[in-house]
Amino acid sequence: MAFWRYAGRRGLHTAVTLLLLVGFMFVLFRMIPGDPTTMMLGTGELPAEAQQRLRVLWGLDRPLWQQFIAYALNLLQGNLGMSFYFRRPVSEVIAPMLANTVLLMAPVVILAIVIGVAGGSWLGWRRGGRAEEIGAVLALIPRALPVFWTGIVLLALFAYQFRWFPIGGIREAFFFPENWWQRLPFFDITRHLVLPVATGVLASVADPLMIQRTALLEVRHEDFMVLARARGLSGRAQRRLARRNAILPVLTYSAIMVGFAFGGQVLLEVVFNWPGIGRLMVDSVTQRDYPVAQAAFLMMAAVVVFLNLLVDLAYGWLDPRIRGG
Amino acid sequence: MGRFTLQSRIDCGDRTTSVALLEIRELSIRYRTAGAGVQAIDGVSLELEAGGSLGLVGESGCGKSTLALATLRLLPPQAELAGTIRFAGQDVGGMKERQLRQIRWRRAAYVPQSAQNALVPVHSLRAQFRATAAAHRMRATEADRRAAALMRRVELDPALLERFPHELSGGMRQRAIIAMALLFEPELLVADEPTTGLDVIVQRQTVNLLRDLRAERNLALLFISHDIGVVAELCERIAVLYAGRVMETGATADVLGSPSHPYTIGLRRSFPDIRDPERPAVSIAGHPPRLAEALAACPFAPRCPFAQPVCVAVQPPLVAIAEGHAAACHFAGDAAAMRSAANRPGLWDGARAA
Q1: Which domains are present in chain B?
Q2: What are the chain B neighbours of A224 within 8 Å (beta carbons)?
Q3: CB under 8 Å to B131, separation ≥6 — which residues?
Q4: Would you identify the CATH topology of the domain A90-324?
Q5: How many inter-chain contacts (A to B, CB under 8 Å) are there?
Q6: According to the model, what pLDDT value does residue B91 have?
Q7: What is the Cβ-side half-sphere exposure of residue A225, based on CA atoms within 13 angstroms?
Q8: According to the model, what pLDDT value does residue A264 have?
Q9: What ipTM was predicted for this assembly?
């Protein structure tokens, strides 16, 4: 009961945040000099008369608040407008790119968090040993290296030198399986995923790992861990208990991580020639394709907000002390 | 370690024939630190019979909690043990974790300070009862059945089993831990300041509960407290600890009735006497020594109003003064004179230069 009241209150917060977010995005993009009519032609401007006709046609002559209401109503119906560059609805432009990004980033985030939590717990439990020192350094090195550098090194080794994996892209235009396992569904896509996912995990595993390690170190000295030993719990049960009580900080961090993952990793996508949303965002800004850029940013921000809601609700579920508060 | 030997076997009247449930011999515990290390326990020997009760008293930092945790080998890895700890004849000191798990909670349970967050914050009480049961291969249904009965025994509503620790008061949490401690009908209960941090009424209820449980379950109790009054009520025997050494030990009535070590005399004076409410409580000037530093031959000498040159030169052995009553003081024989001098106003105000 208390949980649902808490969930309702948090849901309301989220709705307000999203509304402010939409308004902020709208105003921000209207503050950029010029309007869509100045971009209609690549080289020169349209005649003033034509510009004015277009403004009336698209409703840009109306007051800003009316425009905002129209925009918000369209947004509610899932209508994000038309892309200037592609001359297609924005949702049609974004959807496939977003799917590609999710395909790439979902394994990156899941692996980074799973490996980070397991590794961080392991290191925290072995505080002070040689293994702990070496492990922490090993995790931090790839984090300190630039993503494109790690990616290029992996490509040089495993794509050019050993030729185990393709050099980039998401699938081959004409892929002919040579044996039964190459015939498996998604074989080609998985093959293309290995190197970018490995690069992404190497770059992002250190954060959840170090957070989990610190949290576990703190939990280890809690009184309930001493009592857990006194209660005769096995070493495994004790470690599980410590992990369980140390998980909250990583959970918070993972919401942020997932949010940024939805924005795509531009460098990762460039190095591996991956047609994802990160590249689309950069391209749409350079091409002044504001509807696409606005929608992409809005989506990324909305994902962060929603995940924060989800994490807060999960917090209440994982830590009963928060439910009442 | 082992700089003094027991002059006389400390026993307790007709109980000498029974095998000690807990037997600690010449136990020394040292914490490794970045510096010279900390000698928390220095050559302590204690005994607790099955069904018996022993109170450990002393100021904060005298090694009481270290000793309590050591009996179940619950100390952190940087603690080094020397000497022997025997539980029901088995050498606890040499046991592996696997063997320790057979004893922990099943035969010897531990009740920590109430103010501590000893219960897992993210699990309900029932989950914690079940996890404890599972660690000893008891089925969840059996654990639930016993948990409900034990909750009723400690006068808590079994419905509270569904609650989380933060939803209970300090006293309720303490009762819940005591109930959990009884899950396997242990022979020994090690209680480390279980009443500290509770208000007076709840303190009283907890003490009564422990006393009743002891009586009805033949439970041996190792009770750690800085509160002499509570120890006097719960324990048949008492050991006074100072700077990790036993200063005085014996039957509670003897030690508190005719204290024979200046520290015990001072400690006794520091609590108001219900039979003599006019007598002011005193405090012993100074503070316990830092255990990271080398101690005087008698660690209490720097604060002792009766200290003589011999006290800093020669370590006083724990000598028997009467049947089952021993004190580690060169002048334990003059205890009667010290006791009467102890009433002199101003005696405890400043430590004599030793």
Answers
A1: 13-107+184-341 (3.40.50.300)
A2: 117-121
A3: A231, A233, A237, B123
A4: MetI-like fold (1.10.3720)
A5: 72
A6: 92
A7: 21
A8: 66
A9: 0.85
